[in-house]
Write a structure and sequence with these properties.
The chain has no helices and 16 strands. With 189 residues, the chain is mainly β. It folds into 3 domains: 61 residues, SH3 type barrels (Roll); 61 residues, Beta Barrel (OB fold (Dihydrolipoamide Acetyltransferase, E2P)); 59 residues, Nucleic acid-binding proteins (OB fold (Dihydrolipoamide Acetyltransferase, E2P), Beta Barrel), CATH 2.40.50. The strands form 3 sheets. The chain has a 6-stranded antiparallel beta sheet with strand order 1-6-2-3-4-5, with no helix packed on it. It has a 5-stranded antiparallel beta sheet with strand order 9-8-7-10-11, with no helix packed on it. Strands 14-13-12-15-16 form a 5-stranded antiparallel beta sheet, with no helix packed on it. The termini are far apart. The mean pLDDT is 89.
Length: 189
């Protein structure tokens, strides 16, 4: 058991029928009344964030979580299959449980957040940016780059990304996985 004096950013605990990580906290000692701790918590499993206030000295159950790198192997009816890059053990997860699935291609690496005691997969984290090859898009018109217009492009992971008009099939682009935005062209076809 831990109490509020153990709180720090990244502290993970079991609270309110879920596993939560502290994103931000502040110890407050008012002139009147008892001290308390304001926290901003993020649910490890579904990503929901909430604000909560704990009384000073309140006890919570600390949870040990580990981030383990896994390589994406393939997808079938059972879900997505990953291999731990350190132990070579394979894990499968349902495809709907992976946020940002549309930006994961075979061979790419993601982090699976595991419960330290039970080795149960809690959540996944994909990189903030990925490099993907454009597999299908309309050709751009010469000289039509000054307007800032975009066109849809299908990338090798199956996602559709809006790209500038000068991008062609075969180009490799960098994509922001949080917003699904085009960042830059890495190489031309």
């Amino acid at each position: 058991m831990a109490d509020t004096s153990d709180f720090r950013n990244g502290f993970t605990m079991e609270w309110n029928n879920g596993i939560w990580t502290i994103i931000d906290f502040q110890h407050v000692k008012p002139g009147k009344g008892g001290a308390f701790v304001r926290t901003k918590l993020k649910n490890v499993i579904n990503g929901k964030t909430v604000d909560n206030t704990f009384r000073a000295g309140e006890r919570v159950e600390q949870v040990r979580v580990e981030r383990r790198p896994h390589q994406f192997l393939y997808e079938d009816d059972l879900g997505l299959h990953f291999m731990n890059t350190e132990t070579y053990e394979q894990t499968s997860l349902p495809s709907d449980s992976i946020e940002g699935r549309q930006y994961i291609k075979e061979g790419s690496t993601i982090d699976i957040i595991m419960h330290g005691d039970t080795d149960k997969a809690l959540a996944t984290e994909i990189p903030n940016t990925v490099e993907l090859k454009v597999t299908q898009c309309d050709p751009g018109l010469k000289g039509d780059t000054a307007t800032g217009a975009t066109k849809p492009a299908l990338v090798e992971s199956g996602a559709t990304v809006y790209v500038p008009l000068f991008i062609n099939e075969g180009d490799i682009i960098k994509v922001n996985t949080e917003r699904g935005d085009y960042i830059t062209r890495i190489s031309a076809a």
